[in-house]
Amino acid sequence: MKFNIIRSNGLIKIQPFNTEILEELSFFYKYRAKIKKSFFDKRIGKIREILVDGPLKVIKKNLYSFTKDQTGIITHDGLLPRVKNYLDLNSHEYEVENIGDGFAKPVITDRVYEGLYPDQKCAVELMLSQDGGCMIEAATNTGKTRIIASICRAYKGKKGIVVTNRQSVAIKLYKDLIELSPESNPGVYLSTAKKSGDTMVITSSSLDKFNPESIDYIIYDEAHGAGSEVRSQNLLNFKGAVRYGLSATLGGGFKGIDKYLESIFGPIVFSLTDQQLEAMNRATPLHVHVMDITTGPAFSSGTQSLTMERNGVWFNRQRNKLIKECVDICPPDQQLVIYVRTYTHLEELMYRYLDDSFKVFHGKLPAKEKKKLLDGFNSGEIKRMVSTDCLAEGVDPKNLYVIINANWMQSDISVLQKAGRNRRLTDGKEFGVVIDFNDCWDERMTRKSKNRLKHYSTKGYKIFESSSPSKIEFVK
Question: Which CATH architecture has domain 284-471?
């Protein structure tokens, strides 16, 4: 059978209609049984109709839709490579017809690949070869900023958007692009800074401020954050833009999010693991010390999660005292950061356990104060910091040696983004230290801890279980 694929305005239409192709395109929803219904409905939208004996028929309009008419199937352009692969594997002939101007084309020169490692160059080559966009999954310290700058250089003279999830990250990225890709004429659009340019650095909340018809390309850093309904819908409105996604944790969040993101950006074309980076001497190995917390309040079966976290984590004396003991024995010349989930826990640590050598970083701080703290932390002037998740992405401290993760969250994104801050190569730094906790006095607390700690194992970090402050080996 021969198929005709019509490509236009961010969509593709596959003719003639074929049940097997529709089944292939509904692959993501095979994960639905493994997702809590309430969570699924909130993030993706309710499925209005499913054929009893077959594939998906109708899904929430405009978000992630497969629809059909008498002549064919219509779906998002990002799934074109999946359709072509399916047709190739099944020996079907097909022809792709582009209607309209198509996507902006990159201009490849030596300058595009300037200053890249071989693996970074490989990633950029693969990304630029994909007509319409794609994703890469690359471990922290791969050098995603340089990859982004290279992509921007390839689209010199075109209108683009570089998206991040945090203002502090956006400011740093804007400064990096001015240095690494001045020819792309970087600009910035934030609540604290606005400057026009051809390549605008923004946060995801500002996507709806731009005219989709005027944008030629989009680069989304930390693309795992694009899976929410609002962000994905805003991205899909840019139907004529080439869309690139980059992340160290594309598989994070709910099961199957990497496949969901494929409809927005296109397929994953490049992957680089933590172990590969270490083998190339591009990242520091991590030693994870896990300390057992054996005392805490008794919880009934009906105790809410927030109550458990408050009493079992924020105000757990054994836990907080262990944090202080680790701080006390950490070499004073080495940078250390303590991650907490809430401002309440931050206050408790500062009031009862930590001294004024610690600076605090959280979302309530004024923008100028945040910038001052970030600059001091990244330069190494500030040695000790206690922070909420605001410092989990985008910071680049020069001499960070020790991370204490006091956060009880289980998400691999939450866990691994924090640990990744400690993998920058520094002269004399043989390994980085991560300290975490196994809350083992309560069955449900233990289950949460185990779910969190397993993420370190997936990255191949060296784990010391049932550790204690006296067993921690710090870099001399």
Answer: 3-Layer(aba) Sandwich (3.40)
Note if the bond before 16 is cis, omega within 30 degrees: yes
CATH hierarchy code of domain 110-277: 3.40.50.300
| Element (DSSP H or E) covering residue 351 | helix 343-352
pLDDT digits (tens, 9 = 90+) for 94-103: 999 888 778 8
CA–CA distance, 391 with 137 (Å, rounded to integer): 21
Helix (H, G, I), strand (E, B) or coil at 384: strand
Beta bridge partners of 186: 199
> CATH 3.40.50.300 residue ranges in the chain?
110-277, 284-471
Give the integer Cα–Cα distance in Å for 376 and 370. 10
Q: What is the arithmetic mean of pLDDT over 34-50?
A: 37
Kindly give the residue spans of alpha helices, DSSP state H, lying in 186-339.
Answer: 229-236, 257-265, 274-279, 305-309, 317-329
For residue 38, what pLDDT band results from cuts at 50, 70 and 90? very low
**Strand runs labelled E in 240-372:** 242-247, 268-272, 286-293, 335-339, 358-361
Q: How far is CA 59 from the centre of its chain?
A: 26
- List pLDDT tens digits, range 134-188: 999 888 778 889 999 999 999 999 999 999 988 888 988 999 999 999 999 999 9
pLDDT band at 68 (very low <50, low <70, confident <90, very high): low
* Topology given in CATH for the domain delimited by 2-98: Translation Initiation Factor Eif1 (3.30.780)
pLDDT at 232 over 90: no
Angle between helix axes 317-329 and 343-352 (nearest 10 degrees) is 60
Neighbour count for residue 107 (Cβ, 10 Å): 14
Place of tokens 């400057």: 195
Q: Is the pLDDT of residue 346 over 50?
A: yes
- Angle at Cα 118 formed by Cα 112 and Cα 121, nearest 5°? 30
CATH 3.30.780 location in the chain: 2-98
pLDDT over 80 at 43, yes or no: no
Cα–Cα distance between 330 and 54 in angstroms, integer?
60
With 0.85 as the threshold, say if the pTM is over it.
no
Q: Read off the amino acid at residue 384.
A: R
Q: Kindly report the backbone phi and psi dihedral angles of residue 124, in degrees, each rounded to the nearest multiple of 5, phi listed first.
A: -65, -45
Q: Which helix (H) or strand (E) element contains residue 374?
A: helix 367-379
